[in-house]
Each structure stands twice: as C-alpha cells, then as structure tokens.
Amino acid sequence: MAAINDLISQIQDKELRERIQREVDKMSKQKKFGLVFEEHLPECTPLYDVPVKVGATVAKRTGKVNDIYKVLSITDGVASCLHREDTEVISVTVDELVCVAEFGEPIYPYLKPLDSVCNAPDSDLWHTLIEADNYHALQLLEYLYAGKVDCIYIDPPYNTRAKDWKYNNDYVDPTDSYKHSKWLSMMQKRLKIAKKLLNPENSVLIITIDEKEYLHLGCLIEELFPEARIQMVSSVINPAGAGKQEFARTDEYIYFIQFGASCVRPESREEIDTPIVWDTLRRSSLANARGKHGKGACGPNQFYPIYVNDITGKIEQIGDPLPESIDRSYAPRIPGCTAVFPIRPDGTEMNWGIKPEEARLRLQSGYLRAGMAKPNEPQKFVISYVTGGIINDIASGVAILDGYNDDGSVIAHYPTGKDKLPTTNWNKPTHDAQRFGTNILTKIIGGRFQYPKSIYAVKDAISYFIKDNTNALVVDFFAGSGTTLHAVNLLNAEDNGRRRCILVTNNEVSATEEKILIGGGYKKGDPEWEKLGIAHYVTWPRTVCSIMGTNVDGSPLEGDYGVMEECYLLDEEDTVISKHTGKTTSKKIYEKKKIQLFPLLAEINKADGFKANAAFFKLGFLDKNAVALGRQFKEMLPTLWMKAGAIGKCPVIEGEIPSIVFLPNNHFAVLTEESAFGNLEVMLSEHPEVQTVFIVTDYEAGYCTMAKSLKVEHTYQLYRDYLDNFRINTRRDKK
User: Which of 35, 41, 453 is nearest to 214 (CA)?
Assistant: First the structure.
C-alpha cells in the first residue's frame, strides 16, 4: 500500500488525488478472504415501448445500451441529445433512439397483457410469463410476493465463453479479463432480491451451473445466504459426453439452498415387513439343566412333555411336570402324538422357559408352536414361543397381527421401513437433456432452442421440496424455454395440485438471428425482431402448446409422459440343493424387459394437455406522477391481480372506473372512492372469498381505520404502498 500511496501523492490535481485516495482506502478495508470481485458498471435496460420525450435518458438503438444520452429538445422528429460522458451534443432522429432504465434508478413497473391460454375453468389459478429484464421483474415480484415464494429454480447463463449471455446488451467476450466478475456482479444483484422473495420459514433456492462458474457461484452463495443449508449435487445430463478435447463432460452441478424447515423429501420408502421372532422355548444355559439347584436354576415344574401331532405338527396338549426322580420315558403317552421334552442335541435334559400353566395360556392364544427338528436331533420336533415383549407389541398395535396358521399359531409382523434419500450424484436416464429436453421441445415447437433441461430433471429437483405442498408458488427468473412451468404442470397433473409458476425471461434473439436481422435492416424493438425473441418465439409457444396438448401447427401431441426403459428384472426364482454341501440355495433367473418408470405419468396423455391456465405479460414502466394522480389504474390492474394471488382470468376495465371495483372471481376488490366504503363492507360480507382489498387514499389515518375494520386477510394502500415500495422498498400489509 505504501507504494500506491506514494504514487497518489504525486498527482497534481487535488480533487482527483483525493478521489483516488478515497477509492483506494475503501478497497483496502474490504475483506481479504472469501469471494472478492469487481462490481461492474450497473446494467441498463432498453425500454422499446416507452416514447422518447424531452429529458428522457436514451441510447442509440444500434449502439451500446450503456452509452447514455439526455434528450435536450425534439424538433420535427429530430432529437438534440447530450452525451453523458464527453458532453458532446448530437442530432439524431427519434426513431433511432430508445429510452433506457438504468440500474438502481427508481422504476414503477406494470404488466402489459399480451396473450393468455385457458384449458381449465378461468376461475382457477393462473401461471404467468413475464417478458422483461429479470432484474426489474424481480423488483416487481418483491412488491408482489416478498417472503411468499416456496421454491425458486433457475438455470442462469453458464458463462461458457460462447455467446450465451449479455452484459449491458453486449455479449461477453470470451477473452474479457473481467468475464467472471461481470457474471458474478450480474448474479449477485439478482440473488439479493431472490432472497427477499423466499419464505424464510420454509423454502428452497435451486441453481444449476457447470464447471465454468460453479466455484465462484458457490462462494457467492455462501456469502449471500449464511443462514441457509447449502448442498451441491452432480447430475448426469449427457451420458454420451460432450466436448472434443480432454475429458468428455457428462454432468453439471445443482446447488440446493434451503431455508428454515425446508427438508429433502425421501426419494422412496423401502417398506420391509419384518416377521415377529419366535424363540426356542428350551433353556440354553447348563445352569438351567434338569435337576440343577441353586441361584439361577429353574424350579421343579418346568420339565414337562408337550404333545405334538405326528401328522399335522400341531401342539395338542401340555402335559404335567415330571418329578426329578421319574425318567421321561415313563411320561404318559397320547396316541398319534410325540411327547417333546427340552432336550439339547447332545441329549442333556434341560427345562422349558416357562411353566406349564403359562405354556397352556400361550398355546391357547397362538403364541406357542412346534416345528420340525433338524436331522440327527434327539427329538422329532422343536418348540418355539413368542416372548412377552412381542405379545405386548401385538396387543398395543406396534406389531401387526395378520392372522393364524393352521396349527393356531399367530402370524404377525413389525411394519418397518427405511427412507431412501436422493444421493449427491444423480445418474438417471430420465435426466438426459437430449432425450427429455431437446427431443420433447422439438416435437412441440421445433428446433427453436438449444440445450433445454430435461423436464423430468426439473420435476425431480423441485419435487424433493414441494411434493407435499400442493399450493406451492414456484418462480424461475431465467426461464429459457419454460421447462420449469411445464414441470410444475406435470407435478400438478400427478396429484391434482394447485402449484403456481411464475416465469421471467427477456426477449433476446439468438446471435445467429441477430446477425440476419441486422443484415435485413431491422433494429431492436421492430416487430420483425421482437417476434423472434425467446419469450415470443420459444417460452410462450411452449407454454401454450403443452397446456393445450398440441404442437405449433395445431396437431395433437403424441404419446404420454411416462417413460419406458429396458432393464433386467427377476423372471423366476427357484431353490436348489447343492450336491457338494447339501445346503439349500436360491437360483434366480433375470430377463431383460421394459418397465414404466413413471406409472402415474403414463396415464397423462400429452394430447390432453394440462388443466391449467397461463397469462403472458410484458413488463412496462409507468410515470411516477401519473401513478400518484391515479391516472394509471387500468394499467396497474394486472399487477393488483397478481398481488391478490392471480386467481381467475386477469380482469380488464372498459370505460369509467367505478367507485368500487369488486372482483369476486379474482378474490380481490379495489375501493377507488372512500365515500363508498360502507357499500364495500356490505359486499364483502356477501362474498367471503374476497380476501384482498386495495384502498385508494392519501389519508394515512383514514386508511388505517378502514383497514382495521375490514374482515379480510390483506389490505393495501394505493397508490402510496406501490410508490413507496419502489422508492424506499417498504410494504404496508396490515397482516
């Protein structure tokens, strides 16, 4: 640091010298361990649908989006613009300019309806797709669902050194020395907001990545989520391997960041019905031999005959004890039965483990039985019994009584099982991105998108956490082809769930398409350009087609969502006696067969689509003053619909705005005139399904009074609540 300070002291310009010194001091105080990266210039977002006006912040459509100008004047369609950095003033036609939203500047977003698809009653929940830069969309989602999201699944750009992502509207050069820190800077900004969306009591953030950035991402996750439980899984997505040099890559990585009570759902439960244990009734210790006396020895009444039927093997009778002086050969005989005594294999006379009266009770209850003895044993039968602990377990239901054998003995088992948790190495055939990502997507919309995720891989990942939450809210703000929404629909179809998915994606065109469009004289924002963007060309068509059960030409999708796989299954099993040892062994024969990996999914025909609805929006930006004056209510209505839970078809108001916008099908209402408050109370009493109310008022005390008197779950103050959220990041929910 001394050398740097010496160099700084040589700067003649005092203001510049002090400025540089402050920056160096700031850097020197930063942590020396952990993830350190440069936070790059804030990202800018082009706003193609915002009209260019005097005072607007703009960029050239054909230039860099972070090359900023300020519009000084507009005359006859020509704008006079001041360059921010070099203060150069240029003249350029308005058509060549685009308004720009800079990172960190207060924005006031709204949702502009573009399209919808309905294959369920329109009163049901609706999925949503938002076309937007995901940073600004996340800001809107924070206003809508802070602390309410159950699962976030994202597949961000991997920074593979190919043209896979843009920073400030330009592809990142693979030779750029700052490519890692640019990527981290981009991810950090978004993950900070994502954290605010997640339910801190029970939620999960799932991020896929490959070897190019997984180490940096891991450090960033550790830094941003110190309170979370973090685990990384490797997942085989390309069994054949990719890459022409060195190792062929087969897998990628998935980070699971869990919050609160979130836990991994077992992959399966291995149920094992363990039969109860029958113990040999005969005493085993020589201290308990017949005739022994002293400490630990049995009493004189535990040497008695047990009569077993020679044909049925059933215990017929419990005999009386024989005195020590009487040889067992003199015991009474019963025709057709063998008298069994507690005799060791070497012929030593022992004692039974229980007295005869107890033996009779157990025989009556089925807790005593006879079995065939081994060859060369001194007696034909052995006697077994159920211990008192097991008897108590059967009586209490811990052990399950299944019935009785022919000899009257009980049949019972312990219902035991072992949870099988997913491992940290996934190698499932259904996670093959080519077979169950690319091939499935190609059949729906054609070859419009490269490298989609396997729908089953995404379904598995989210199922481990939200399978038991049938009302979960799932967000994907790097939506790509829309696999996450497709997977959520598949999960809902499996168990009739009502999980809702929100997708966010920009509308970038591919590098190849961009080159062709520029060659054709088209600019960003032109209809010809926009229709080829990912949101319009890939994500939304996939959503529509998968829900309706058709491909893009309208023909029905073929097949079902089950997956048949070949494997070796046990065909038959037999027992054979070894010629060498004489022991009985098992002989198993396996046969190669096809099995259904997802029996439930095999019942879901692709042509039937899904009982689901989805709405397509584009994120726009409102004028703050217009919002404050209440002039943007119709534009804000979709946002209010989302905040109320996106229930029922997104409402539209034509004509004049009534004093009460009452929408029972959407489960919310808006009071636009305070004088109509009494009427609102009456309407709410008749429609208990309405649980969200927005009150338009500038009078803080009045809002608080009205909010407290309403018997609804949530109330919000418009437009104060909305404006404050995006200006100072506060929310006013009374609950």
Answer: 35
Tokens of 525: 């924002």
| pLDDT for 731 | 42
The tokens describing 43, both together, are 């990202």
Tokens of 526: 């032109």
Entry pTM: 0.75
For 449, 710, 711, 717, the CA distances from 685, given in Å and listed in that order, are 50, 10, 9, 21
Give domain status of residue 204, yes or no: yes
Q: Same domain for 261 and 129?
A: yes
176 & 157 share domain: yes
Domain coverage including residue 385: 274-417
Tell me the C-alpha distance between 663 and 644, whole Å: 11
Q: CA angle 29-30-36, nearest 5°?
A: 160
Cα–Cα distances in angstroms (integers) from residue 127 to residues 198, 504, 700, in the given order? 18, 11, 34
Q: Among the three residues 70, 102, 134, which one is the final residue of a domain in this structure?
A: 102
Q: Which two tokens stand for residue 556?
A: 């029905």
For residue 400, give the 3-state DSSP assignment: strand
Closest CA to 303 of 281, 335, 273: 281
- Tell me the C-alpha distance between 602 and 611, whole Å: 16
Domain count for the chain, please give it.
5
pLDDT of residue 573: 66
**Nearest-angstrom CA–CA distance, 445 and 545:** 8
The better pLDDT of the pair 340, 512 is held by 340
Reference 457, options 475, 478, 440, 469; nearest CA is 440
Mean pLDDT, to the nearest integer, of 120-146?
94
Residue 237 shares a structural domain with residue 213 = yes
Q: Which alpha helices (DSSP H) does 405-539 contain, by range?
A: 433, 439-445, 455-466, 483-495, 511-519, 527-530, 534
Beta bridge partners of 81: 71, 90
Confidence of residue 41 (pLDDT cuts 50, 70, 90): low
Region 607-614: mean pLDDT is 97
Same domain, residue pair 328 and 386: yes
- Based on the fold, state whether residues 384 and 469 are members of the same structural domain: no
Rounded Cα distance between 668 and 670, Å, is 7
Instruction: Tell whether 262 is covered by a domain.
Output: yes
Cα–Cα distance measured from residue 132 to residue 126, given in angstroms and rounded to the nearest whole number: 19
Angle at 209 between CA 204 and CA 210, to 5 degrees: 150
The residue type found at 519 is: G
Residue with tokens 């890559």: 249
* Residue 564, pLDDT above cutoff 80: yes
CATH code at 522?
3.40.50.150
Antiparallel, parallel or unpaired: β 151-154 and 202-209: parallel
Token pair for 163: 């043209």
| Same domain? 334 vs 407 | yes
State pLDDT tens for residues 504-546.
999 998 878 888 998 898 888 889 999 999 999 999 999 999 9
* pLDDT confidence of residue 34: 56
CATH of the domain at 50: 2.30.30
In the chain, % of residues over pLDDT 70: 90
The beta strand positions in 513-648, using DSSP E, are 564-577, 584-596, 613-621
Residue 23 corresponds to which tokens in the numbers above? 């920056």
DSSP E strands in 44-88: the ranges are 44-47, 57-60, 69-75, 78-83
* 728 — pLDDT class (breaks 50, 70, 90): very low
Whether 314 and 226 map to the same domain: the answer is: no
Q: What percent of the chain has pLDDT over 90?
A: 65
